[in-house]
Model the fold of this input.
Amino acid sequence: MPASYAYLGPEGTFTEVALRTLPEAATRELIPYVSVQSALDAVRTGEAEAAFVPIENSVEGGITTTLDELVAGEPLTIYREVLLSITFALLVRPGTKLADIKTVTAHPAAQPQVRNWLRAHLPDALWESAASNADGARLVQEGRYDAAFAGEFAAARYGLVPLETDIHDAENAQTRFVLVGRPARPAAPTGADKTSVVLWQREDHPGALRDLIDEFATRGINLMLLQSRPTGEGIGNYCFCVDAEGHISDRRMAEALMGLKRVCLQVRFLGSYPRADIAPGGARPLQPGTSDQEFLAASDWVTRCQDGRF
Ligand SMILES: O=C(O)C(=O)Cc1ccccc1
Done:
């Protein structure tokens, strides 16, 4: 049996479409799971080699179930990311008209992407969340809801028809998905990489968050995501999910992570992996003084000073 990738199912999710864009997916058995948690658990138990799950969208930010799963429990590592442009179709059973729709469903992350459309076209419809957009389509097929927002491609799979297509409140809405596996050495840098970490502050004090961010800023590292998540240990108690430009094998990133390790209560490394938004080698020019050579030269100079050879 080939190694398997778990993904947020059932069949017909945007997650499945995004997963199939990865060349390595063609050589794996792709197994749908009912939730992000169960897909990630399949990796933790060794049932699946890796799991593919949504993690962020350009309209609402981080997908909190996924972030919370990566923040807690047995550590997992992100190996790849995929960006997918998202537009929704309103899927109904054949014969349903707009005026018949009293209940609608989709994944919670879909709602901010269709809210204005709903207000304009179905202001009185009751919204209930589904485990995924394809699961919403399945529930419409079963007669549990009148309509589901999902990919148009999911219609045929669930015996539904698209009553409306190309629904998106925001132009160019994109969702980011990640391939997550058990911890192992990150892939070699491509020249356009991203590093994800979770940071827990040691203590609350004025400027505590700025102190963490400074570890990146002073080394010329740009941040791409900064999302706070409650630790569950009381009001005002948060950890921070951070995506930063660069790879852990870059000196500036390694030094920033060393700095964070010293000043944070805890740091969880979630991986260094190729960026999906730009081609290999396409990262922004480095800030003066932050190349590997400059870090190494500075370190050599300190050693010479310590040895009295300056
Ligand atoms: O993959 C899906 O279909 C999902 O349910 C997750 C999701 C939610 C909203 C936009 C893209 C993906």
